[in-house]
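Notes, p. 3: input format for complexes.
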Amino acid sequence: MRPLMRVALVVVGFAALVVLIARNLPPAWDPRTPLDLTAAPNWLAASKLAWMRRDPQACFAAFATSAIVITRVPDRPSTTGCEIENAVRLASTLRTSPPSPTVTCAVAAAWTMFERHTLQAAAREQLGQEVVGIRHLGTQSCRNIGAGAVRSQHATANAIDVAGFILRDGREVRVVADWHGPPRDAAFLRAVRDGACRWFRVVLSPDYNDAHRDHFHLDMGRWGACR
Ligand SMILES: [Zn+2]
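Output follows (227 residues plus zinc ion):
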């Protein structure tokens, strides 16, 4: 057989193998299928989640696949960079205070992964009980970052500021008081901060600056940061 023919056969054989594998992938390992937010995450989960920032339909499909009911929030155009698009009421199994904040679908999806696969595990491991509620400082606010000229991710409801975690025994672990508080509470908050970085694009804690001394900022914007 001529060398060229041999190479062509190898290429065709390889292409056929790739097609065969792609057609028979289990859904969890298939990059084309919606992410099941309730299933134990594999290494594809974070990239599927990141993709939802650019493809809101993939985000809505993920909630449908996961059988999690979401309430859509109507789009609201803006000429000042504060548009609300593809937003939902935060879908959480936790008591949320204030209730039902508006967030982008991408933030809601990241939150679901965070809550189910990071937050409760950290609470059980560090504190021996589960989280039943969160206290947040807001999701949507038409403003810039600090005193700068760049719009905050909060301007488009693409972020959430979490100030405290209410435990099953009624106690609240607060970022402002417990970041440098009792060792187990401080360890829990650091585990939550570090774990959130797997799901959110930007995670800012008291380690970042004084503006974040009392909350974790979690967003699904373009940039990546874990501080
Ligand atoms: Zn924030």
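Residues 154, 159, 161, 217 surround zinc ion (CB under 6 Å).
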